[in-house]
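Re: folding output
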Amino acid sequence: MLELRRSLDRGYANHGGLKSYHTFSFGEYYDPVYEEYGPLRVINEDRLKPGKGYETAAPPDMEILTYMLAGELEHRDSFGNTCVIRPGSMQRWSAGTGATQSELNPSSSQEAHLLQIWIRPAAPGLTSGYEHRHFSADERRGRLQLAVSPTGEDGAVRIQQDARVYIGCLNGAERAEFEVGKGRRAYAHVASGSIAVNETRLNAGDGVKITKPGRFALQSGRAAEVLVFDLP
């Protein structure tokens, strides 16, 4: 039921101003076993040096999510959206054909630490768009807070795919359970700290595929921040 992906087994790229760990195949890194998982195409753990950023080109027909862990990231796009996102914020950039964006660490001294996530939409011809939402520490504490969904319930940002992303911060006796439905799959990624998925201990950067329906528990956290993906 659980297929582990340890942090040290991920791909790695050092571009000077950007250092990135790749859970799935990305750029020059290719792993035929971890090319994608259902519509989940990318989980990159990125660290941007002060004043550095990403290129403006974006892949067409891709839901691009950014979850901030530390520092700040300034987003600008061809639709006129401008925003600085901070820790606890989930950003959604729907990259349709012809859309461009640029993202920059605006700080002069602090590194930006974030997860960049790509999810394939349910159908080609994605409508471009932008949205972001900040989730407070209280919303994320001791539970799994819905952050991304196709309908935007509970304040989640919307994506054009039957997928959901939950975020949670758990420590000590705090515990959260998650049900994988019939015909569904899940992926849990530890952004920071350490936590047990059922009885399997995961540390920062580790992930696990949940390949069969059933209930699993996130427990015995040690300052853990975790993302759970509910996927078709």
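--- second protein (sequence, then structure) ---
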Amino acid sequence: MTHADPGLAVLEGEITGCRRCPRLVAWREQVAREKRAAFKDDDYWGRPIPGFGDPRARVLILGLAPAAHGGNRTGRVFTGDRSGDFLFASLHRTGFANQPTSVRPGDGLALDGAWITAAVRCAPPANKPTPVERDTCLPWTVAELQHVDQVRVVVCLGAFAWDAALRLRTTLGRPPARPKPKFGHGALWYDDDPGGWALLGTYHPSQQNTFTGVLTEDMMDDVFRTAREVAGQ
């Protein structure tokens, strides 16, 4: 991935070399060795996933963690799995992405006004990172935000990302939100701290939610339209 900011490219190299969480390192590498039958001929990435998108973004999209056979296979967040298919289709419809699909790095996808990253950068067993793993990984997002420094809205994909965003605020030196804002689809919380973010919640675009109608295309599109409005884009 090429960045106009050379510091962001250096950070990307540091993120992809991280081995701070032994459980996650073991799992991501095991998945990359054993593979899924449908991808037996693919060379799995099997490392942490850096953020992706527009460094001038005013909208940060925060997910949970890479999928074992999605981002952990392709090397790009939300790329190569059904959740990503749903997410990028919505980003395309709402003007944040130039195409509706994200298949692999180098596929022509570009984002405008959005940066996508995850609370935890490695694929976790059963898609469930621990709180310790979340907190160990948050400094990478802090470092990314030193370069992606125009963010005004954080779209949180699920309750885990919502909680991670609140912890991210305090890691950045902002006072804890009191009372703690409650997650919900469409929940919108404004930070009173000058220069702070708005948090905007949405159900995670997992198959469990999209196949059952808990999260529809219209619901996701409405969230990103709201994000654009709040961010002033």
